[in-house]
Amino acid sequence: MKIALASATLALATIGTANAAGCLKGAVVGGVAGHYAGHHAVVGAVGGCVVGHHLAKKHAEQQSAQRQTAHAQ
Q1: Which structural domain range is residue 56 located in?
Q2: By C-alpha distance, which of 11, 16, 13, 4 is closest to 57?
Q3: Cβ-based neighbours of 27, under 8 Å, separated by 6 or more
Q4: What would the pLDDT profile of 22-31 be if each residue is shown by its tens digit?
Q5: pLDDT digit string (tens) for 5-64?
């Protein structure tokens, strides 16, 4: 449990505020899923934060590429 809490703290501390929404949304979904999958809410929240952060970053990169393509035309 202590390792999961330390991992969650480290994950949240390293994520910038610009992508915090992806982390927070993912953490909520992962925490709920982890809770119902065997009382592993903290592990689920950490995993959800990582996945949410990744998806938010990927989405931002896609939007940036679309803007660059639109400006080039």
Answers
A1: 21-72
A2: 16
A3: 45, 46, 48, 49, 52
A4: 888 888 999 9
A5: 566 666 655 555 555 768 888 889 999 998 899 888 899 999 999 999 899 889 999 999
CA–CA separation, 65 vs 43, rounded Å? 33
The predicted model scores a pTM of 0.65
In a domain, 58, yes or no: yes
Sole residue written with tokens 């989405």: 59
- For residue 2, is it within any domain? no
In Å, how far are 15, 28, 54, 60, 66 from 24, measured between CA atoms?
A: 11, 6, 12, 16, 26
For 18, phi then psi, to 5°, come to: -65, -30
